[in-house]
Specification:
Layout (H helix, E strand, L loop, with lengths): L2 H8 L7 E2 L10 E14 L5 E13 L9 H15 L6 E6 L3 E8 L4 E5 L7 H4 L28
Parallel strand pairs: 1-6, 3-4
Antiparallel strand pairs: 2-3, 4-5, 5-6
Length: 156
């Protein structure tokens, strides 16, 4: 979900809720402690230099149970980040405390912001000997004898 989509969704809401991948909601007294840009400049295992940029929200729970962040306030924080940091319309990544800091993607279901699971991946599978998917075999080129299984046919 891009930053512009978050701002549009916030404009439709009376309250903000973030839902974790297991279906539970982040406690309503959460804070957004950071809105920023994270830039990653790296070399993958195949030797290709890459860059990734994401807009980042950090959610945090404190013991102030009466705290409620309203959509207008988060929109103002985002707009200030765009102005001061030059934050572009990037994909949003959310950090939230679990056993360690969890990184999540973000979607919106019309009511809640959904924290989606992110996975690591090899970006240079062709250099690691890992196939992108199942091997495709053309069945049209196979002979009729290869389509039958019998003694000496080589099917087993």
């Amino acid at each position: 979900m891009k930053l512009s989509e978050v701002k549009k969704a916030l404009g439709q809401l009376d309250s903000i809720a973030f839902q974790l991948p297991d279906g539970t909601l982040v406690p309503t007294h959460f804070h957004v402690t950071e809105v920023g840009k994270i830039s990653k400049h790296f070399i993958d295992c195949g030797g290709t230099v890459r860059t990734e940029n994401v807009a980042n929200f950090q959610l945090w729970n404190a013991d102030d149970y009466n705290h409620r962040l309203h959509p207008e306030k988060l929109n103002k924080i985002i707009e200030l980040s765009e102005k001061v940091l030059g934050l572009e319309d990037l994909e949003v990544e959310v950090e939230y405390q679990a056993e360690t800091i969890g990184k999540f993607g973000l979607e919106f279901d019309g009511t809640n912001f959904l924290l989606t699971s992110k996975q690591t991946d090899c970006l240079a599978k062709d250099n690691c000997g890992i196939s992108e998917g199942k091997q495709k075999i053309s069945l049209a080129g196979m002979s009729a004898s290869a389509n039958s299984c019998g003694p000496g046919s080589g099917c087993c």
